[in-house]
């Protein structure tokens, strides 16, 4: 009976299991709205017109650098029902156990991942992986299913990951200044202030992230974010 319960409610993380999300690097983040609602505003003449909730989402994103250690913000945009942003962790390797050389970990990543990775990262820069902020949220599948059209890619051969892998430990305890803790704090801040102002609003439980591999991918994703309002009619998040 216990096995059936675990299998029913267990959701395997699609994130890169050998990657610690406190490590130095650039991360492309996408967070969507609950029920695909257009809480944040409208695109008018290729520009975003923000609602009050949209203003909160914008202001608190730019506050992240003031509340999280060693964080630099890249391109960011608030769209009608999602946000895109780049977070750059400038971590001191001495502060994080087992912090690897970026080139070495990416070489291992490429060995374990499928050969389509580069094409997906460059030509379809929507976040490649999905993550729930806590295991307690694992049974809340409805929000995630609303984004079933988003591409999900398991970046490593999970059959080779031992039970005490970094990825599994990260799910149990995301740790301070990790991508999970930063995004969790951001979402909570926006929600808290929206509730105080009695504004209708809700996030999806999960967010999407993508480890940006190189300068070419960084520039491509930055341009994608910057031009999002101009291409709203073509955006897969619109419907």
Automatic annotation (TrEMBL):
GO terms for molecular function: sequence-specific DNA binding; transposase activity. Residues 140-152 have a biased composition (Basic and acidic residues). Residues 22-228 form the Transposase IS200-like domain. Residues 140-174 are annotated as: Disordered. InterPro entries: RAYT_transposase (IPR052715), Transposase_17 (IPR002686), Transposase_17_sf (IPR036515). GO terms for biological process: DNA transposition. Residues 153-174 have a biased composition (Polar residues). This is Transposase.
